[in-house]
Amino acid sequence: MSDVRDDAPSYVSKDSDVQTSEAQGGEGTVWGHTVAIMRPREELYAYWRDFANLATFMENIVSVDVADATRSHWTVKGPNGNYEWDSVVTEERPGELIAWEAQGDIKNSGRVEFRDGPPGHGTHVRAVLAYDPPGGLIGKAIATLTQKEPQTSSRRDLRRFKQLMETGEIATTTPPNREPHS
Amino acid sequence: MRALTWHGKHDVRMETVPDPEILNPRDAIIKITSTAICGSDLHLYDAYIPTLQKGDILGHEFMGEVMDVGPKSTLKKGQRVVVPFTISCGSCFHCSKQQYSACDNGNPAENQDLGQELYGEPMSGLFGYTHLTGGYPGGQAEYVRVPFSDVGPIVIPDGMPDDDVLFLSDILPTGWMAAENAMIEPGDTVAVWGCGPVGLFAVQAAFKMGAHRVIAIDHFPHRLELAAGFGALTINFEQTDTYEALMEFTGGIGPDAVIDAVGLEAHGFFADNVVDQIKASTFLGTDRPHALRQAIVACRKGGRVSVPGVYGGFIDKFPFGALMEKGLTVKTGQTHVQKYLPQLLEMIGNKELDTTFLISHRLPLEQAAEGYRMFKNEQDTCTKVVLKPGLELA
Ligand SMILES: NC(=O)c1ccc[n+]([C@@H]2O[C@H](COP(=O)([O-])OP(=O)(O)OC[C@H]3O[C@@H](n4cnc5c(N)ncnc54)[C@H](O)[C@@H]3O)[C@@H](O)[C@H]2O)c1
Ligand SMILES: [Zn+2]
Ligand SMILES: [Zn+2]
Fold first, then answer.
1. Which domains does chain A carry?
2. To test ligand 1's pocket by mutation, which of B99, B218, B340, B380 has the most ligand atoms within 8 angstroms of CB?
3. φ/ψ bin of A88: left (φ > 0), alpha (ψ from -120 to 50), beta (otherwise)
4. Reduced to 3 states, what is the DSSP secondary structure of residue B234?
5. Scanning every residue of chain B, which has its alpha carbon at the shortest distance from the alpha carbon of A57?
6. Between 20 and 30 A from B157 (CA), which of A80, A98, A101, B99?
7. What is the pLDDT of residues A22-75, one digit of tens each?
8. Which positions fall inside the Coenzyme Q-binding protein COQ10 START domain (chain A) (predicted)?
9. Beta-carbon count within 10 A of A61 CB
10. B172-332 CATH, one of 3.65.10.10, 3.90.420.10, 3.40.50.720, 3.30.1460.10
């Protein structure tokens, strides 16, 4: 096999070393996904860059308190109470890219890129999240809380971001199987 | 409020359930004045489509009066509206192309996973259908919550009766889009499988779009008569070999366009259909595509195949060779209802389109379960059931 890679993002690689190569802090699990959103790049960037907004569409985040231009304090749901950590922005290019990394024991990092899609196809938002190895703290916590893979949960978060940006609201239904009281 | 709920195969019940509430800024609450039972509801009634849950409220063809609005709704209390069965945001990529039934944002994120796995893309939101399409409570009820009420509902002018406009919610635009997807050219012969509401509106629409001849295929004499009333030639597939008859009508070249308005529960004692029934009953297959197979085989070379009929899963023995070797074009999909509403409302107002001929039964909402039974078991004469909350039977 040749060493030359194709043009696909590393996180969809079938080779596990390539698959995790975008982890910033050496985390063992990398999840990435791209979603097309029909809003201008700058607007999407600005909403995401204010980390306090993340709690509006990420189901496991309780709150993110912004400390200063680069530091924020994250509170995330866990099965036996919340997890907390401080996170620092490691790279930013307005309208294009934000990368952040957690400080301390609970290893995780994230990166989101905003690129113009083909003409008429909106902005391509590509999120890459990295966390501890499979079976590690965060993965387990998300799986226990939501009964699903962390990847599934993150993909839903990105869909909610798209809904909020494109429609101003997040689609929901009344509990479908609430008990009829006849 | 009172609502019709699903509990399993051939088990639907009127129950008292909590009233709907405004949940999002663009929502509205509609007080139902008329709602209909659809062939798509029969697929749920017959438990052919998965992911329904006990207690789900059915119904996706409805209209009524605006009772309450969220801060971003453009509707006003008291307005009369018909609501499309497709829940569409109006601002995603697909909505911007008027492909409303492909809307990215109508379906809650947590209901999108299965569709993504099954179809490669999540389904959009539909009222009163399955949890693949959002699990939205439907309109066979006294009240319903309508998301994106600034995009979907069309306001009905005073003086137009419910019965004239109710079918704008689904089957009229569905028949219209079926004919549009047939890309009809002058001189065309168009064959329509199924003379249910969708097929009958497709017959009318095909003539409006310039079809020279329309051939309607079914086995129910009364339904075939209704098609003949619009000028269609008829084939009763129980009496006649459909393929041979189509070849005779077209000098051996086949219809220029074919429309499958039957969907996944084809009737008839055909070898492939019997095998499909056994497979479906033992879960080896999901859909019974007899009409679709026949339509593809009968279509002329270079012709067009339009499929408004609903399919949900996998099809066995699909004649893909015939499709490829004859160079056919296939167009299908859930209807982009919003796209057609203004034009069709105007045509109804001008009496260019007749919709009321279809209604065979008007029942109080309380008798909805009886309506399902009739629409299922007395298909020949029971062409469309309209339910009205509070209707007093004379
Ligand atoms: N694409 C959409 O958005 C959309 C919207 C509404 C309905 N639909 C679908 O359209 C289809 C028709 O709906 P409907 O309300 O008219 O249903 P319906 O059940 O009233 O009518 C179906 C008709 O097909 C006939 N039929 C059955 N087997 C046949 C065969 N082998 N050959 C010819 N005719 C046959 C039946 O006798 C019946 O008259 C359903 O699958 C429904 O789910 C699709
Ligand atoms: Zn319908
Ligand atoms: Zn949309």
1. 32-167 (3.30.530.20)
2. B218
3. beta
4. strand
5. B109
6. B99
7. 887 777 888 999 999 999 999 999 999 999 999 999 988 999 999 999 999 999
8. 39-142
9. 17
10. 3.40.50.720
